[in-house]
Amino acid sequence: MGTFHTTADRVQGTAAVTLRYGLVLNLMVIGRLKFEDYEVDNIRPLLVSSPPFSRLTRMFGERKIARIIGVSEILIGGLIAARPLAPKASALGSLAATAMFATTLSFLVTTPEAWHQRRKEPKLSPAGQFLIKDVVLLGAALFTAAEALRKVRRPGGSAAHRDRG
C-alpha cells in the first residue's frame, strides 16, 4: 500500500510541475505573439465583439490593446513561474490568470464568429475551438493558485503545518 501512495505522490508532484510550467509556457508564448500583426488580426473579432474590450479598442487601438494583453500575459506567466522563490506572488499570478481565462471564455458568448451560424444545433467554429482550450487553462490556473497558496507561510503556523501540500 505504501508504494502505491509513494507512486501516486510522485505522479501528482510531476503533474503539478507540468501544469504550472505548461501554463507559464502558454502564457509567455501567447503573450509574445500579441506583438505580431497577424495575432492582432486573429484577436480582432474577439476584441470588437466584447463590450469592455470594444470600448478599450476604440480608445487605444487594436495594436496597443494587443500589446497590453501580451505584456499582461508575460507578466502573469513570470509571476506563476516564481513559485519556488515567491509563493505569494505565484498565487497572485495564478489568480490573475484565472480572471484572464474567465474573461476569454466570455468571448464564447460575445463573439458571433465562435459558433457556426447556419447549424441546427450549436457547433463551435475554429474561433470557438481556439477559445474552448481556456477551460483547461482556467483549471490549471486554479490548481496552481491553490498549490502556491498552500506554500505561503502562515504567521504563527507550525513548521509541520506550513510544509504540508
UniProtKB/TrEMBL annotation:
The keyword Cell wall biogenesis/degradation is annotated on this UniProt entry: no
GO cellular component, as recorded: plasma membrane
InterPro entries: RclC, RclC-like
Transmembrane segments: 65-85, 91-109
Entry keywords, A to Z: Membrane, Transmembrane, Transmembrane helix
GO biological-process terms attached to the record: response to hypochlorite
PANTHER family for this protein: INNER MEMBRANE PROTEIN RCLC
Designated name of the protein: Uncharacterized membrane protein YkgB
Gene source species: Nonomuraea maritima
